[in-house]
Design brief:
Layout: H1 13-21, H2 30-43, H3 48-53, H4 55-61, H5 67-71, H6 75-81, H7 91-111, H8 114-119, E1 127-128, H9 142-153, H10 161-170, E2 174-175, H11 182-186
Parallel strand pairs: 1-2
Length: 190
Amino acid sequence: MEKHRCAWCGSEPVYVEYHDKEWGVPVHDDKLLFEFLVLESFQAGLSWITILRRRAHFKKAFLNFDLKKVAELTENDVDILLQNESIIRHRGKIEASIANAKAFMKVQDEFGSFDAYLWAFVDGNPIQNKVKSLKDIASKTAISDKISKDLKKRGFKFVGSTTIYAYMQAIGMVNDHIIECFRYKELGGK
């Protein structure tokens, strides 16, 4: 019997694998939290599949998402990245990734980890939505508004509320798998 999945992942293998193994799984590793932040900020205005298909290239271009190395990228490095056809060549998003690495490290210094800072917005527990269909999934919420506002205050870029809500879904702060999806219950939905 075939597993019932959220319709958004379709049948493309990279999308199905992401849906089945990553989307909505709680992430508490700062390096992976930074990776998803970079990827989500690049996704703004594009489809997620576009980013997933280039994920390995982003990982290489952004130095395995090493915070310190990304924070030290120079204007010359930005110019080089703008020539890299394997990633999304958008100066603002590339520069945002560098600024976000610096801001990310400041949050780590203040809170001990980015994980501790971020998950405090949901008291450390994923929000379990009861989504019946794709049309019921929010694009932003009061919590994503609050996180977005706080991140911007801390110097983060390309972190609007819609981007942050997609980030929350990706890193498991919210379970937005539809209730018929096999992943819904696996990720704590009741």
